[in-house]
Fold this sequence. Notes:
- The protein is built from 23 helices and 9 strands.
- The chain is mainly alpha-helical.
- Strands 1-3-4-6 form a 4-stranded mixed beta sheet.
- The protein is elongated.
- The two termini are 35 Å apart.
- Residues 552-559 have low confidence and may be disordered.
Amino acid sequence: xxxxxxxxxxxxxxxxxxxxxxxxxxxxxxxxxxxxxxxxxxxxxxxxxxxxxxxxxxxxxxxxxxxxxxxxxxxxxxxxxxxxxxxxxxxxxxxxxxxxxxxxxxxxxxxxxxxxxxxxxxxxxxxxxxxxxxxxxxxxxxxxxxxxxxxxxxxxxxxxxxxxxxxxxxxxxxxxxxxxxxxxxxxxxxxxxxxxxxxxxxxxxxxxxxxxxxxxxxxxxxxxxxxxxxxxxxxxxxxxxxxxxxxxxxxxxxxxxxxxxxxxxxxxxxxxxxxxxxxxxxxxxxxxxxxxxxxxxxxxxxxxxxxxxxxxxxxxxxxxxxxxxxxxxxxxxxxxxxxxxxxxxxxxxxxxxxxxxxxxxxxxxxxxxxxxxxxxxxxxxxxxxxxxxxxxxxxxxxxxxxxxxxxxxxxxxxxxxxxxxxxxxxxxxxxxxxxxxxxxxxxxxxxxxxxxxxxxxxxxxxxxxxxxxxxxxxxxxxxxxxxxxxxxxxxxxxxxxxxxxxxxxxxxxxxxxxxxxxxxxxxxxxxxxxxxxxxxxxxxxxxxxxxxxxxxxxxxxxxxxxxxxxxxxxxxxxxxxxxxx
Length: 581
């Protein structure tokens, strides 16, 4: 009974437009991944609170000066030593790892990488590395859902959806911003917008937000006063702010790219370099250590001096870009929001000094800087704008936010010709993601939603009585063979004609079902997407594939419901049919 229910659910999930089942999946996945994400956050905050001054998890600044250098260096050395014998592929973490496995491995994320992200991320942030928890949270949320989907043998297209749900729940739970979580998942991770995709991803973000508020409260993560643009005369200055931030984003990308050139070094060497750079920067500007939300709130409240902010901008860019490029299991979103906030605060102060009657308060530019830097570095302008809207709870920020984010993103990508942070890393790792519209469309549906199930399976040679039973039902396809690596395929009419001819010649003989009417057929697992099927057809130069059921090998009975045949024409017809885009 349970097996048949699971089989029916899997079949429905293979269909990209099965909104009810995908929605239920979105809610359940939001719960499971949120538990892991919130545990990760709790582990960081509780561990840091135990030993940092004032039991403040962000208060690295009040540590003795010698710890500003030795703490990040020792943490990096310990982490590098622990991972020195782990293969390079198993130590890759963060958003880049999620993107790579989503688009090149159908969302199948490994457990080992997730464990390294969880424990390595905690150690990195607690030891004062210049990084955030949002990137690790995205990895952990996506990996948790992916591993559950793999364990339940869900279709690969639904596992891809689970990765998107984990991403949206991670961003929503991290910043208390459900809309930004949804847009970030669609814009950065899944790289497409579909109606069928929005619903489960939204439900996961809602679930993540509810659980975050239940455990950590509903207070805003940043103390943002009510803000609005004072005058339209500020428009050129806001555009100039976007230009400055886009330039800083390009500098960040350049340092990141240079650091990625050392990817062939051992992980111990790379982490030691990252720890040294962070330690040296922290000696001068201890505010760069850790996530830095306390410094961001200080910038919002105009509590940082001009000298501190300029030093913080430079040191944070260097330390974060180098650490990320060296493979440290940290996130980039939080640090870049802090960088943008400080740039915005500096520019707001300059505006108030030269044009006091025309310029809005400094915190207005801090908020614009946060969104502009996030949008430029992550190439996620819409997600950054939604984050601004939700963080400020003020629709007046939309117009100036759009301007600052757009100019910053264009400056980084078009003037300085820099990619986003994750695209830069993927380029250096020589990984080209298949994100063209056709590939994305074919990955939304599984072969189980399209395959022809009117098939029978048989051994190569059978008795005359078995042959009569075999042709008694009008199956359209027959898969013949006992070895999965040497299967033969025959159309129903052709095999029935062959068996009739054999029976006329000798009623008692053993019937050989192979012959000129059969042709070799390759096998593909029923979890596969339509893109996987088409790719295999192109590689083998065939037009038909046998889809094997969930029991791994050949199904145990003729016409097993979760096995079938899929043809190239089936896929082409499906791809030409209007979908819920």
